[in-house]
Design brief:
Shape: globular
Number of domains: 1
Largest sheet: none
Distance between the termini: 28 Å
Order of helices and strands: HHHHHHHH
Helix content: over 70%
Radius of gyration: 18 Å
Structural class: mainly alpha
Strand content: under 5%
């Protein structure tokens, strides 16, 4: 058990070091997410009640597109440098590679989401502080479910010649329950509804995250062999 944790931690730190040396990746993810928010604000110019109605959808659309860039980047660099081939030959469980990639992408996307939420609060003149605790809870489980899907399909798409096109085609249909649950829960949270009204959506996000993390952990060996 401790050896597995050490392996995951080592691989996780490897990804962090790579991204720190090439900081344009996380910068491009943040800029792309901000661009989505800005375009929605420019196109609809919402105010008051309309702003609250559009905000959850705008946020999760920005998170979704930012994630696409992060997942593509995560495996493209590994394929170009033959790193995945080396890791596949190493005497470690391939599922541990998936867990490390999931943690790294979860962190990268969390940074991008923090930047996007901050910019959104300024552009839409909206404060997330009154519901910050529940908002963070919903965003965390929604992001975890999205990353759990994105990492394994990012690995699948990395084996194709048109990976930039194939990743969203493969990923988004599977991730639909995550986005539906996340948008519904975020809407209720921002409207200050009692937790009992959106608890079922949060449970959906938690269940989806657990199921897909477990399935991906077990199947990642076969993905690497393709």
């Amino acid at each position: 058990m401790m050896r597995s944790i050490d392996i995951v931690w080592t691989l996780f730190l490897k990804d962090l070091r790579i991204e720190w040396r090439q900081r344009e990746a996380i910068a491009s993810v943040c800029v792309f997410g901000l661009l989505v928010v800005f375009l929605f604000d420019f196109a609809f110019q919402p105010g008051g009640e309309e702003s609250l109605r559009l905000l959850p959808g705008v946020l999760w659309i920005a998170f979704a597109f930012a994630g696409i860039l992060a997942f593509n980047r995560s495996f493209a660099a590994e394929r170009e440098n033959m790193c995945l081939d080396v890791l596949r030959l190493a005497p470690i469980d391939p599922g541990l590679i998936y867990l490390a990639k999931t943690l790294a992408n979860l962190l990268f996307l969390a940074v991008a989401e923090a930047v996007i939420v901050f910019a959104t609060s300024l552009w839409y003149n909206f404060s997330f502080l009154p519901t910050f605790k529940w908002f963070v809870c919903v965003v965390f489980f929604g992001t975890l479910g999205y990353v759990a899907v994105g990492v394994i399909f990012g690995a699948v798409a990395a084996n194709t010649r048109m990976r930039e096109v194939m990743l969203p085609v493969l990923q988004f249909p599977v991730a639909v329950p995550v986005f539906i649950g996340a948008i519904e829960a975020t809407t209720s949270v921002l409207k200050h509804d009692p937790p009992s009204l959106y608890a079922s959506w949060v449970k959906l996000l938690v269940a989806f995250s657990i199921i897909f993390v477990v399935l991906s952990f077990l199947l990642f060996e076969y993905v690497l062999e393709e």
